[in-house]
Amino acid sequence: MARVAIATALGGLVLFVWGFVFWAMLPFPRRIIHTPTNAPEFAELLQQHALQDGAYSIPGMPPEGNPSPGELEEWTARRRKGPIGFFFYSARGLADDTPQLMILGLTLNLLTAFFSAWLLFVAGLRSYHARVAFVVGLGVITALASHLKQANWFYFPWEYTQLMCADVLAGSIVLGFVLAAIVKPARIA
Asked: How many angstroms separate the CA atoms of 18 and 22, rounded?
């Protein structure tokens, strides 16, 4: 288990650095996540409606409870006509360079590295390549279960989905290289 602890520390740090490189240094995020040309007016419009912090969809989710056929038809027609959208809203600003944000980000990366290392340890794979593939497989499962599912059910744009999957998959490849070098099965006596 000492190897799992070492792998967690190194893997979490590598994921943290990878996240910085991907989101701050590579051009893809800025090419895919767009800023509306009228962003200040759009933000003011949202503030005027006094939205609570949360996730929003346009034209909204289907009516709750037991909607009448007419209510369901109206919702379906609005959805077909468009526009449709999904966005996250927070009324307060965000300082993205705060120590708390960085500590939380590192903590999440450490948790990801820990669970990946622990599963790799339990799997007991002998080959370095098999161990790398195992961790990459965890990334593939994560991408399928989260980002690709959202693209299907919430119509997230394909480019955005590819961006998010690229982050997860490239991160799992880098993490796989680190964990596979450290987390090895116990020798059989």
From this structure: 6
Q: Total domain count for the chain?
A: 1
Round to whole Å and give the CA distance between 84 and 79: 6
| CA 154, 158, 164, 168 torsion-angle sign | positive
Is pTM beyond 0.90 here?
no
User: What are the φ and ψ backbone dihedral angles of 98, each rounded to 5 degrees?
Assistant: -75, 150
DSSP 65: S
Q: What's the domain range around 132? A: 2-40+96-182
**Domain contains 49:** no
pLDDT in tens, 36-46: 888 889 888 88
Rounded Cα distance, 144 and 140, in Å:
6
| Residue 189 clears pLDDT 60, i.e. is over it | no
| Predicted local distance difference test score (pLDDT) of residue 187 | 66
